[in-house]
Give the backbone structure.
Amino acid sequence: MKELLLSRKARFVKYVVACLMFIVGDVLQALIMAMIFQTIEVGTMEYFWITVAAAIGYVVVSAGFFLGSRMMRIAFMRDTLIDIRVRAFDRILNMNYKGFNRQSREVYVSNLSNDINTIENSFFLSLLNFILTCGSYVVMLTILFFVDWRIGLMVFAVSLVVLGIAKAFERRTIALEKEKSTENERFTVAVANTFSGLEILKLNNIERKFLSRAKEQVARLEGSKRKYSLYTAVQRHLNEAIGSIVMFGLLIYLMYSPGEPIGFGKVVLVIQLASSCVFPLMRMLPLLNVIKGSDAIYRKITTASPDDAESDARVVPYRFERDIAVRALQFEYEQKPVFRYLDFRIEKGKKYLIKGPSGSGKTTLLKLLSMAYDDYRGTIAIDGVDLRTIRTKAYSENVSFIYQDVFLFEASVRDNIALFKDTPAEHVLEVAEKAGLGDFIRSQPHGIDEPIAENGKNLSGGERQRISIARALCKNAEILFSDEATASLNDELGRAVEETILSLSATVIAISHKYFPGVSERYDRVLELKDGYVNEYSAVDYFAEVTVDETAN
Amino acid sequence: MKRRIRYFDRFPLVMIPIVANAVLAFCMSFAMKATIDAALIQDWTLFWDEAVRMIVFVALLLPVNLLTAYAKASFYRYVALRMKTDYVEAVFGKSIDEFQKENNAAYVSALTNDFAIIETDFVEQIVAIAEGVVNFATAIVIFSLISPLVLLVGAAMMVMNALISSLIERPVKKHNDERSKLFAGYNGFVKEVLSAFGIVKNNGLEERVRTQFRDKSRSVQEKRFVIDRLMSYVYVGQTATTNLVIIGLLLMMARLSMAGSLAFSGVVVVVNNIGLLIGPIFTVSEAFPRIRSVKAIFQRIDESLRSRDRHPETLRLTHFERSIRFRDVAIAYDDNLVLKDIDLTFEKGRKYLVVGPSGGGKSTFLRLLRKYFDPTEGTIEIDGLPLSDVRKEDYYARIANIEQTVFLFEDTLKNNLTLFKEHTEAEIAEAVAKAGLTEFVGSNPEGLDYMIYDNGKNVSGGEKSRIAIARGLLNHADVIMLDEAFASLDRDRAREIESTLLALDGVTVINVSHVVIEENRKRYDGVVVVKNHGARFAA
């Protein structure tokens, strides 16, 4: 985080100065206190009134410094926090598909909310106090040395002891804080999962069991929070105890002056200075730990892991005129073989249907062809150029998808179809019609400008699917990947959509388990995946072997 | 969450070490006074006696403080545990329909964010107030024993602080509420983007999304900045006032000491214990607004837990013998009529197919069948008994559900199949075979003990469907309801499994599906067509 803070050097210096402003107030306070006690010793009214004047001056000056310091600090805090949020977000955004899927979505949400909240609430306060403590220590100790060098030396020695003890506690504190953050993440994920399955649990009358599980998870989280707070509390109290004993010892030492009158002013001044050195120092290492802890959290949420980033070996521009050639493709997922040997060609402009039993890797093949994973053996080449070297962005611009899971933005129907591009409304309406959304749009009071609520909660499965299809049609890319586009549609609509897809000029690679007589035969080739290998057929041949199974309603 | 006071049953235990602490502070102060007095009259024997006493008290502070820390930590843990557990139980206790009225995220957010705030701004603040009160009382006792005049000034301070706090409370609360709303918007946006990661990346929407995020972050931080700025004036006012009063107090005491009416040692003790007087005032004045601000959170939690008055379910159902009958059933959502005039009978042991255009009401029909809610008009009868009067648990025990999106939890394949109910190896093997899962089970060395992770990340779509089907078969239920269960399966598989289901003797099958396999269609006893706000058997 150092680098982040120093990125606005001038403002950071201003911030540090703002923190140090309090020292002036503290020193003045020590002096005023000494003066007040001195007044008792001196005993004259004249001295008393001088003290009063000085005291009022102190109050005003210190208030001014307080306000000024705060104003200077909070602006810095705000700007730094915005930076942190953006960086954390960028880290996630810059991940490639595989890296992103390595962790559950809830973890990322936790990173962007819980973790940053932790930084917001504890880091800055700790930083302020840390800077202040260090500065104050130096200044107060120096003054103390001038007043009585022996006591100065003793206080210095005590502060070393205190620091030593704090250092001993350090490692475990950081470990506990990290554990707390991890437990938090785990808890959020577990709880979200359980709630998402509650319907099923209730339908099967097994919610009791999961209720106990959930309770256990709560207990575990609370336990880890307590460990941390208790450990830090012990540390704090131990330090305070040492400090108190030292101060009271000092008091006794200063008062024990047989034969001489006690100089009140000096005693009070020394005590003030000494306590300003010893007590704040105890907080220094815990503060430093909080700062380090926040730094660790910061690094966790903003540092991209190298495997997750888009590889920068991708420099070749995209060009697709001839074919996509898959040669000797081998792929494993989590140590299980998916493809043993795939070898086929996809010609530009043709339509390919991917078939195969469940688990044969149809979706995986689509993912490999769309650059989601690149740790396969063999090659996938577009016009002879290895897919792994082509620029991701260039490729993405020329590819559309129809997924099984449709995600809808909280925006208008139009924006959901055009994906926020400035596509003319007529084009959007046209593709919506082709996707079978005509009736739906006409039934909405605002037509295509009708807003869609959170992830399309109030839309049926079929309607969502049709929006996904409309999206792909709207983008009109050269390559269309489709994964069970017609799964949620009835036969009549499914058939119409399949016809639309087959009439596009794009190169289509589709997964579909449905058969529409007269339409499905219009695919150019069928690629059937089985046991990690592929068999290629012409669509006509493939469907001729197969009995007619499905009818329209 | 309504009767919050019952969470504080262990509160007295926390107070014990706090009170002990205060007593110790008291003893320490007067030992110090005696020490100083002795030093001033140069009675060094007395001085050492009192000094030793003083040091002993100081040393005792450590164990007492540790005890306090431990008591507090335990207490917070206890309260948090109970509150969260009660919440989870309440959510689990909701009927499915009521549960689905709120977004999942709302429940998760309550358990994570809201309870965290309740802990810091409610529970901890209440303890802080109690501690403050105790310390303040101690300070008053000490001060009144040294100089009652000092007390008066302390009271004046308290009044002043209370006034300042109450003045700024409302605008701060307003700002905090707006900030929470902003945070909710921020969180919602974050979740949305993360769900759409694939789409964002494939359509070059990164810049747009990045800009939107930056804007949202900015608003959130700006809001906090405005609050902080406002609070600065409050804090400075408080600090300046406090300083002024303390300095004034000290000057007054110096004056009294100069005049001989107050011992020097008294002044020292007062100075040493000023913190005990001032601290609680600040703590308490900060605590009350925080506690008040939590009220909104409690309200929101209570809202989300509220369930409509449920129809009393008193009837038990141990077997299903004859039929499920819809009599003039109609269902409407918020003034929208979804289905009406439904008159159908499903007979035991028969097989039914339910078809219809998407968006035509099939899911609603299924939800009625599953007793997620009761019809707005008419009745559904099971074996002549009104379904709305039948206990949910009993009805659910008679039904097996096979759904399209399968819920898998982090456990073995076996447990995901049996759902923790007792089944013999043979029963499991049979269900596995009928659902077409044998190959999958065989492909893993651990077989049925294969661990499934995080909602089935390591299982393909088709396998998930087959697990759902195996689950349904294992249940040996009287009625099997399928909800687009075949959508993720290829034709061969779907046909096989459908055949198996259609061959089950004595089991009623209700299959809501788009996938109609012609060769199996004639084996159904009836086809229900749900469309145009109605549901009737096809001819």
The beta strands of chain A are 323-333, 336-347, 351-355, 377-382, 385-386, 399-402, 479-483, 507-511, 525-530, 533-538. The first strand of chain A starts at residue 323 and ends at 333. Chain A touches chain B through 141 residues (CB under 8 Å).
